[in-house]
Description:
Blueprint: H1 3-14, H2 18-24, H3 28-38, H4 41-51, E1 57-58, H5 59-63, H6 71-83, E2 87-91, E3 97-101, H7 103-114, H8 128-131, H9 138-161, H10 175-183, E4 187-190, E5 193-196, H11 198-204, H12 208-221, H13 223-226, H14 230-240, E6 249-250, H15 256-268, E7 271-272, E8 280-283, H16 285-288, H17 302-305, H18 316-321, E9 324-326, E10 331-334, H19 339-345, E11 350-355, E12 358-362, H20 365-373, H21 378-387, H22 402-415, E13 424-426, H23 432-445, E14 448-452, E15 457-460, H24 464-483
Antiparallel strand pairs: 1-3, 2-3, 4-5, 6-8, 7-8, 9-10, 10-12, 11-12, 13-15, 14-15
Amino acid sequence: MSASSSTQALEYLEGLPIATHRRLYEQPSTVLAVYRCMLPHLAKSIVMAMLYRPSSFPVADLDAWFKPSARRTKEQALFTLERLHIIAQVKQDDGTMAWTISTGFQKSLRNALEGSGTHRSFGVPATREESGGKRLSVDFLDEYSRSQWEGILYYLVSGAAGLSKDSISRAEVGPGTKKLLHTGDLVRTVHGSPRITKDGFSFVLQETNAQVWSLLIVYLKMTNELGMSETEVLSFLFMLGSLELGQDYSTSTLSPTQLQMLEDLSSMGLIYRSDKSARTFYPTRLATTLTSDSGSAMSASSNDIAQANQGNAGPAATANKGFIIIETNYRLYAYTNSLIQIAILSLFTKLQHRFPNLVSGKLTKESVHKAVQSGITSSQIISYLTTYAHPQMQKTVPYIPPTVMDQIRLWEYEGERVETTTGYLMREFGSDAEYRDVLGYASALGVLVWQNDGGRCFFVSQVEQISAYLRKKKESRESARGAR
């Protein structure tokens, strides 16, 4: 699971209420996915230290594990665990504070690691009778998911790139998927045809796994509108990430919500079913890598999926090893005939010539400004060019000429003089000592954005953990006064 996709999923999970977390943690497959893919490494170590403890973990004992210099890392790990309601701080009988782990999370993670229980949350393989004695090949599933996903990408970029309907992928985008794209503000209808938005521009430059999660999070936010259970939807998605590619699974144990999901996810290429009445389903690579560290289905980026486009794509190996050459004079040459690759390049490049297996153009101030205004950042452009640099470019490090990278950044800065950050202003502290203490805590959490020592105020991106910290300090002071 890539960093960007895990961050998206984690941010969504952190925003859920404790009641939803408790229901989610009833499923071992969900708990294992959260543990493996959502938690920082240190948070995993803390969970494992508490998993088989017969009692709570005293705060003082946990603090003794860390050097003072590691305070920030420790606080960030604890912050994530508390936000996910995996651990909580409680007062013991002797008045000291201790960490306790959620009983539901603890039980489910034990079951997942030990292979115990009768939960069947990791899917039920289809019987020979249900599958009809036949099993589809992995190659077929890859081709199916690739075709479905490239249809979505074509729908996004075709309007901006001027692609005709005849050039669009053979996989038709269903009405449900179109609604997701519009609801997520990835595309808008202008004069009867789809037009990509600034969020859509950012979407197509993401890794495939991050793209899938972006669309699924929009889907999750629509569950109430669709009359579905958010908990069941999330549990099913995490279950898909634990399934085996090439294995068919029975639908007999699925709930009505999950059966509806099969139809929705099929149109996105995550699931394959021969028809709506089929008693089995196959997860594709897009689904089985949802909670995996192995990356996305068709390699690192969206344009690799385009390789299956009949008549329009070059060999997959070309995209995998890189196809872009860029010179110090900002001239760009791309050895491809994939329409999706060409369309993505046109988002930030002024394309000038097209040949059977080559397009050429130039990075200009105007083309980069246009991309920036659409929501694409200079770092995204540089990352894309670096990821798909031609083998000839990869003989030197960095792959992209430094002058080109610097100029792309400068062009972006010319159009963006002010940066805004959403957050909270902390002020009116009782003393300088209190201000310094809370400021240090915010810095340790990594949420500090700005500070003004003279005015005893600072700005943070998140306030929940700081509020909890202030409450605990207040309770400690009151307890100390009461003890006297």
